[in-house]
Amino acid sequence: MSEHIPYPWQQDFWQRIVQQIVANKTPHALMISGQQGIGKWHFAQALADYLLCLSPKSELACGQCRSCQLIAANTHPDKKIFIPEEEGKAIKIDQIREISTFVSKTAQQGGRKVILLGPVEQLNINSANALLKNLEEPAGDTVLILMTHVLSGVMPTIRSRCQLLPMSAPSKSVAVGWLNDLQVGDAETLLDLAGGAPLIAKEMVEGDYLEHLQIFVKTLDSLSSHSNDMPDITAATQWLPLSVNHITQWWLQIIHRILVNSGSSDDVLDGDSMDNLEKGYGVTQYVQRILSAGRHFNRQWLLKFSDKLILLRQQQLQGANPNMQLLIEELFMDWHVIVQRSIRQ
């Protein structure tokens, strides 16, 4: 069996696309979209393996045929993967030109040719236009599998030439069950911190994610205190090791909780979840104070600030490389204004 097997929460999506393939209605271009951390790229890999397998079994790649052996060795001549050469950077036009060359050739194994590309929102304008030409004039039995975290960040002309497969996050029960099988610790709490994305929850216990999260919420707690003093801009240096992706992701989650809990006495999570957070991950006391202060913040200002964070997140995914020191200082000041205005209401 192939090493790429769809995750439990992806079975409905898998059945839908496999039925198309079996009915000889394989799309020439498929775009898988959804939030980060739910396994879209893994799904794309599984689909590529299935399309190239010579003798699929139980609607999956067999893992044993000549084609599957080449895939396992990363030497299959009819499978090409195109991702940014550096994390967070754009997919370059030279890479897309390589796609054009690949598409024009005959499949060496006598079957399909499969291209995996993503995240699509990280194409710059030149590479996006070059890709568009391949989508307009697909050559031979070639299937392009595209993946995006931000569908709105993909050119409409590219979206319109693909079959869209919007992939939702798993239900909490399914995701927690999967994490429990991996024995990662407090699965429910991790999943909450990860915004419902099980793969991000899994990564939390494998690196310095939680340490960085603690730095973020501790500093944000200090910024959120009702004080007329200017924020300590030197504290921005504590966030320099953090990525734009994490800063925006965590901040947006905080704002979402503030908006949801406005007028409620429930500051963070309830009961055992809160205790587990504080004991296991050391962030609850800070998050609780932020959300408590946030109940007094103006909703319109919060929404405007969240729009700014979303734009920053999209720009980062498209390869933007901001000056982190200046960016963080700017965000500090924006948040300080929100806090101070709430005092004057």
Can you describe what's shown?
There is one protein chain. By secondary structure, this protein is an alpha/beta fold. It has two domains: 8-166, 3-Layer(aba) Sandwich (Rossmann fold), CATH 3.40.50; 208-344. It contains 15 helices and five strands. The protein has helices at 11-22, 40-52, 66-72, 93-104, 125-136, 156-159, 172-182, 187-193, 198-204, 209-224, 244-261, 271-281, 284-294, 299-317, 324-344; strands at residues 29-33, 79-82, 113-117, 142-148, 163-166. Strands 2-3-4-1-5 form a five-stranded parallel β-sheet, sandwiched between helices. Helix 4 (93-104) links the parallel strand 2 and strand 3. Helix 8 (187-193) packs across helix 9, helix 10 runs parallel beside helix 13 (284-294) and helix 11 runs antiparallel to helix 14 (299-317). The protein is elongated. The relative contact order is 0.11. The model is unreliable at 264-280 (pLDDT under 50).
Task: Reconstruct the topology from this structure.
Blueprint: H1 11-22, E1 29-33, H2 40-52, H3 66-72, E2 79-82, H4 93-104, E3 113-117, H5 125-136, E4 142-148, H6 156-159, E5 163-166, H7 172-182, H8 187-193, H9 198-204, H10 209-224, H11 244-261, H12 271-281, H13 284-294, H14 299-317, H15 324-344
Parallel strand pairs: 1-4, 1-5, 2-3, 3-4
